[in-house]
Amino acid sequence: MTRTASPDDNSASAGQLKRGVLGTGGLVFMVVAAAAPLTVMAGVAPLGLMIGGVGAPLAYLAAGAVLIIFAVAFTRMTRYVRGGGAFYAYIAKGLGRGWGLAAALLALVAYNTLQIGVYGLFAAQTGATLADVFGVNVPWPAIALVALGLVLVIGWMGIDVGAKVLGVLLVLESGILVLLAAGILTRGGASGVDLASFSPSAAFTPGMGGVLAFAFAAFMGFESTALYRRETRDPERTIPRATYFAVGFMALFYSFIVWTVVIGFGSDKVVGAASENVAGLFFAATETYVGPWAATLMRVLVISSVYASQIAFHNAITRYTHSLAQDGVLPAWIGRVHPRYGSPYRASVVQTVLAMVVIIGFALAGADPVTGLLLWVNTPGVIGIVVLQALTAVSCAVYFLRRNRVASTPAALTAAVTSAVLLAVATYVLISNVGLLTNAPAGVNVVLVAIVPATLLVGGVFAVWLRSRRPETYARVGEGAELPTTQEVAA
């Protein structure tokens, strides 16, 4: 006799994702680790200071404020979305299945490019550290492929293991930044503590548009709280809490850390210091205010920060893949869950193979791991995620106005409309300043940006085909129906 698993079955042996293994803390670790705070600060914030001046800390607060507004509508809609496909499920619910499928394809492309591109950064940082500390030179593709295997292992072992690993790594990378900030403030910085970074004149410098592009990129992955719906305890409460906490923490933390670095070099000299030493600004500040040992430790923790980001994005990708397999859009075998670990292990293998192909392709082409693999591959992902955020905000507004007025509240509807406008502006700012992200020729930038609308178009065409040829599958889009259990498949 065929046994049908209960939706609340917490057993991995049921052939479903583990139930109730993530609380608010674990969910926050997942999404904040995806953003890689130490990498964002040490690797990108100096460029923001060079371009936007001392007002750079304000850009992180502004981006955080926009995303908090977005989160009001996003989390209000959470209780009405059954599927675990985050953007895909939300857009399908509000704008229809066609837009949902287009969003699903863009999400897969965006998350994969974000995750795969960062292997270039991991390889470059690890290679430089091995050479500086141990005098060992290892080819970057070898480092990237080893990291690929390590990410697969954590993803295979289940979300609870991943959350624990990410929790430890996140505490370590945040800790070294707090240590830097404490060292600067206790010693009064280079010329005293001031609030020049938060003055009106600092907010409207010509380069702030470019800094906003970096600031929005620094929050990548926060919306993935909704991807873990099935693995979260009390998702209607846990997902909103984790989303608000993650965005609020990142906005305040990023702004505070960048401000302390401004104080460390002096608000009148930090732009010059950043221009002269973009890559080493944070390490120089750490060596000055904490000690050489801390600067060395920070270099090591940058590597662990990137690795944590890889794990988090890998988990997000496999949940998207699992959700699409549940809805029948992808083959069911891709969405199968490990009978012991409760992880979508086949989706993990597929994503790992895809990443391996891209890494080997760039290696054979002789590309640089940072200017090639990282910047070129990552950029469509960053733009794609912001576009998806804007579409989700529009979807929330449509859902509240046309599909479920009972779900609507004045705050949620206002937040949906406001965030849709602000995220549309953010998309424009990001595309206008894409050259700052890629450091590539104009022709290359056009191609990288065009990947996003082209992906949406392909997804839309696929939706039309699916509606015509497989209407029963099309009807399931965004609904999040469970895959058959292992026992049902055997029966």
How would you portray this structure in words?
The chain starts with 23 loop residues before the first helix and ends with a helix. It has a single domain (21-483), classed as Up-down Bundle (Amino acid/polyamine transporter I), CATH 1.20.1740. By secondary structure, the chain is an all-alpha fold. The radius of gyration is 22 Å and the shape is globular. The protein is 73% helix and 0% strand. Mean pLDDT is 87; it is low at 1-14 and 482-491. The protein has helices spanning 24-35, 37-52, 56-78, 87-95, 97-134, 140-156, 159-186, 200-203, 208-217, 235-265, 270-276, 281-289, 292-326, 345-364, 369-403, 410-432, 434-438, 442-469, 471-474, 486-490.
> What distance separates the N and C termini?
8 Å
**Would you tell me the overall average pLDDT?**
87
Secondary-structure arrangement, i.e. CATH architecture: Up-down Bundle
CATH superfamily: Amino acid/polyamine transporter I
Radius of gyration: 22 Å
Task: Please give the CATH class.
Answer: Mainly Alpha
Number of domains: 1
What is the overall silhouette? Answer: globular
Structural class, by secondary structure, is mainly alpha
Indicate the percent of residues in helices: over 70%
**From N to C, what is the helix and strand string?**
HHHHHHHHHHHHHHHHHHHH
Quickly count the helices: 20
What name is given to the CATH topology? Amino acid/polyamine transporter I
Number of strands: 0
Question: Low-confidence segments, ≥5 residues, pLDDT <50?
Answer: 1-14, 482-491
The largest sheet is: none
Beta fraction: under 5%
Protein name: APC family permease
InterPro entries: AA-permease/SLC12A_dom, APC_superfamily
Transmembrane segments: 21-45, 57-77, 98-122, 142-159, 166-186, 198-222, 243-266, 278-302, 349-367, 373-400, 412-431, 443-466
Domain Amino acid permease/ SLC12A: 27-469
